[in-house]
Predict the 3D structure of the following.
Amino acid sequence: MTGRRLRGDAGFTLPELLTTMWIAMVILLAGFALLDFVMKRANETEQRVEATQRGRIAMDLITRQLRSEVCLDANGTSPILDGSATQVTFYADLGNSTASSLPEKHVLTFNAAAGEITESVAQPIAGNPVTWAAPKTRKVLANVTQDGTTPVFQYFPYDPTRSASLTALTTPLAKTDIPKVARIRISYRTTPLRNARAPVAVPLSDDVYLRVVNPNPPEPVVGTYNPTPSCS
């Protein structure tokens, strides 16, 4: 009777206990590794979405302004004053778009050292020639870098063949090349405002086709032919 009772109360042996603890430890470590991986991917996804949203909002603002470029006057003065790989200066009309209104002077600048794109706007002062008030500058996009070796601003001439290998104009733009600009390409990469565990950069690019005629021509004279002057 005593022997049966002792055999009935027998528990795990030491090797069985150690094996069970080792298996439990492996499962626990695997669970922690999976949790860390999921949290890392979720964090990167969240930051990628944040960087993409900021980059797209800034791209929409930049392209909207470039699409609003106009001639300075009825004489066909080019809407682009100058352009480089990191800066473009142009006239834009975001107001009532009438022939009597004067456009604003806009400057979009990419500052690699600060990692930002800024916009400078100068209001016109009527006169002959037109003068400009002190410009007001604001930040368009922060945490932005160049997309590899691709310039932030590229300028292309009109291409009737629509070639995929069209060569961009040399920057800074020469005075003789400014009237040739028919398309501006904007390219950059946005990074999260908060540091991610792994590099997260979202490349964005868009093209803006410039006008070839003045959208604000002089008021027509009844009974006469009034051609719309060219912007270039």
